[in-house]
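*** Fold description ***
***
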Amino acid sequence: MQDVMTFLSKSLISWLVIQVCFTLVFLWYLRSYKQPLLSDDQLPKTAVILCLRGADPFLPNCVRSLLTQNYPQYDLKLIIDSAEDPAFKIAQEAIAEIGATNFQISTLRTVRHNCSLKCSSLVQAVSDLDDSYKVVALVDADTIVHPNWLRELVSPLTNDKVGLTTGNRWYVPTGKYWGSLVRYAGNVSTVVQMFVFQVPWGGSLAIKTEVLHQTELLEKWGEAFGDDMLMHKVIKKHGLKIKFVPSLLMVNREECDLITLFASLKRLILCSRLYHPNWLALVSDAVSSILFPTVAIILALGLLLASEWEGAAFLLQSYSIYTMGLLLLMLVMELGVQELIRSQGQAIAKISLTTIIKMLIAIPLTQWIYGLAMLSSLWMSTVTWRGLTYKIQGPWNIRLVEYHPYEWLDQPIDGKHSL
């Protein structure tokens, strides 16, 4: 038993040290990154593609921000599930409000049954572009961009060795649902992990049009469930770099309850298993971050019940050091990101003592929920996503069971709740 306790203790502390190192590297990159922005005449004409199914909570803000970019030549291409979709009217009203002309709204003409609906929309949007567009930018409806977003996203692509640029999302820790806080806690780790493994995020991504065609990405999207994770292997296979742009860490203020979060986590973990460039490393991370602390706390409680006070105290001490270390990492990350958010002119979340206590409670809760989601996803072959069901037998064996348009009745009651 002593050997087991020593192993668990050393594993927790060692993994904490590793996470500290990765986090410090990420924060150093966040502060030191300097990318000269191109002048207007150097910026290529760009198509910004936004695929919509359902009205995301902050969709009007998203559309307005995309149409007021500090960028000379670009067009917003909206691909909406159907004319009956609630997003259609909302997008039209947001566009009319600012009187924009650099946009095109299309409905999805062909619903492919061997890929996800989003991939169907991407294939249509890119296929409709003419040769004047040299860059394609992808964005999600939960992304509210700042005025220099597109300029900062596209500028690094002038380097011939860079094939793709990307940002990431950052949730706020002050939501009213525990699901929002758990999602925030998990995302703190995910952001660093995606930076380390150079995993693109489809919510803020740009790729050269010539690279997109050279890599036959459209053909891959036409058979895939996810659109962004698979791009890592595609880009690397052609000897190109993926550039993470720190200033494109975008704030997401949506809410999420635990039930909705659990379903979305299973879907994301399934996507990771199908397309993540380092799936085994992700599993190792899960074992270190979820299994070891969970076993440690269960064993400590067992020792307490058996009146093994010394052994229980030893494990509880190790677990407490690990958990408090994670809390400090979250706070350090939050402060580092808040400085970036403030520079974008956005409001930052105020971290009160109550919030810090909730963050501390959220750490073990996050470990357990992520652990359950990972276990549940291992034998998962059916996914429901925005009201549609998919059968998934492999990364390139996807089947949409039945299609129907998204309706107002499908919208969450809470207007800030993620779809």
